[in-house]
Amino acid sequence: MLPVVALVGRPNVGKSTLFNALTRSRDALVADLPGVTRDRHYGVCHLVEQRPFVVVDTGGLSGVDEGLDALTAQQVRLAIDEAQALVFVLDARDGLLPQDRAILDELRRSGKPIIAAVNKTDGLDEQAALAEFAAFGIAATLPLSAAHNRGTDRLLAALQPLLPEDTHEELAPDENDSIRVAIVGRPNAGKSTLVNRLLGEDRLIVSAVAGTTRDPIRVPLERDGRKYTLIDTAGVRRRARVEEAVEKFSVIKTLQSMAAAQVVVLMIDARENLADQDLTLIGHALEEGRALVIAVNKWDGLDAYQREQCQRALERRLQFVDWAKNVFISALHGSGLRELMRAVVRAHAAATRELGSSDLTRTLEKAYESYQPPLVRGHAPKLRFAHPGGSNPPTVVIHGSRTRHIAPAYQRYLENFFRKRYKLEGTPIRIVFREGENPYADKKNVLTEAQQRKRQRMIREMKKRKR
Questions:
Q1: At 42, which helix (H) or strand (E)?
Q2: Is 102 annotated as belonging to a binding site?
Q3: Among 97, 100, 220, 346, which has the highest number of CB atoms less than 10 A from its own CB?
Q4: Is 121 annotated as a binding residue?
């Protein structure tokens, strides 16, 4: 395993900014507000090719032992326990605060090597800024400007001697070998609870407060011999209700996570009616062409009448995605999770299935014989052959004539025909029509001398008949 370095400090000192600088990414959500980061966020630093390591971005230790602050502190302590080295991030503009001393005392009790990174030194006298923190007695106290990526080289040089030797194992989990699953839904639908239940540990913060999760968190999972990458995302509300800038960025990252995933699991609260926002999220998944599984959570708390009404509502409003599997689960108690993961595997297999050109053409011929497209100006569109155009989602390219006039209803007929033929459950199908160009469209037919004489004779003959 790669060595682990945890970034620890007060809220709003620049830990997430430093995380993005070390990982050369924008995975961590950054805002000029305290308490933006709550869960542990992992990334790999490859800036030193010989000694890569895992960086853990943590939430700020506010010193409050209740509510979300207490849950965040618990996540920070878990990161400290698994780290081999600690980077204590400080704010040069705020100076040395009593809260920093309390955090340092806790870090020293862990027995791990500590580096003090004094952030936000841009525009200040570095020596004067470091002098205030000399009272900590930390030998490696370094100036840093994470926002401008200054001082990271010295930080990396100071970290290298503190890290254990490389064990020559795989650097990081290869997501190409795993099924990427994005778990999306409205706030407080139970997304983090589902991830924790699948992992069997409190990996993510779970709270009754809506909007607890802000950053999309990627978590590897191996279950029944298969590898997954679960992406827990922030809850998405209606645009009219989104006012804070942090929530807007969280929604953007949620949509990006859906685009990066292979299967989207939409979490729906069974105790609430299916909202328009749920349908909007389904629409985003369809635009990205992602496989879809509907997970109806909190099913165990409903009586028989409520369950019947919920099922009817789902059947009525989800007719446009009737190919998506509906799974009724309880993320809190773990019921229905086996069926949910089986639905995810089937949807992924259907979305990534490779189709052959000859088989697609034979299937197209059967569909055309069973039901031909309506006539267009007295002529029927001709569908000649088909070939695959890609996967995730499965794309079928159909060549023919007058295909631009094919009605949407006939296109849906073809989608359903291909879905039934290849048993493509849980994934959308894209049909792309290609119409061959007329090779004589812009060419003028030049008559020979004999054809011109014949044409003149026919004109004279027609004039005689009119007389």
A1: strand 41-45
A2: no
A3: 100
A4: yes
Q: Tell whether 67 is in a known binding site.
A: no
59 assigned ligand-binding residue: yes
Kind of pairing between the strands at 382-390 and 395-401: antiparallel
Residue labelled with tokens 């997304």: 191
Annotated binding residue 420 = no
Q: How far apart are CA 426 and CA 447, in angstroms?
A: 59
List the structure tokens of 60.
Answer: 């700020």
Q: Are the C-beta atoms of residues 63 and 102 closer than 8 Å to each other?
A: yes
94 is in an annotated binding site: no
Q: Is 79 annotated as a binding residue?
A: no
DSSP 50: T
- 12: annotated binding-site residue? yes
Is there a binding annotation on residue 367?
A: no
234 labelled ligand-binding: yes
Binding residue per annotation — 299? Answer: yes
Residue 178 labelled as part of a binding site: no
Q: What is the pLDDT along the chain (467 residues), one digit of tens a residue?
A: 788 999 999 888 888 889 988 888 887 777 666 667 777 888 888 887 768 888 998 888 877 777 777 888 888 888 899 899 999 999 888 888 888 888 999 899 988 999 999 998 888 888 888 888 888 888 888 888 888 888 888 898 888 888 887 544 444 445 567 899 999 988 888 888 899 899 888 888 776 666 677 678 888 899 888 899 999 888 787 665 555 666 677 788 888 888 889 999 999 988 887 888 889 899 999 999 999 999 999 888 888 998 899 899 999 999 999 899 999 999 888 899 999 999 999 999 999 998 899 999 999 999 999 998 888 777 788 888 999 988 889 999 999 888 888 888 999 999 999 999 999 999 999 999 988 765 556 677 788 889 889 989 998 888 888 77
With tokens 């070390």, the residue in question is 22
User: Structure pTM?
Assistant: 0.79
Which 3 state secondary structure label does DSSP give 396? Answer: strand
Pairing of strands 263-269, 179-185: parallel
* 120 labeled binding residue: yes
> β-pairing, 217-223 with 141-143?
unpaired
322 marked among binding-site residues:
no
- Compute the distance between CA of residue 63 and CA of residue 1 in angstroms, rounded to an integer: 32
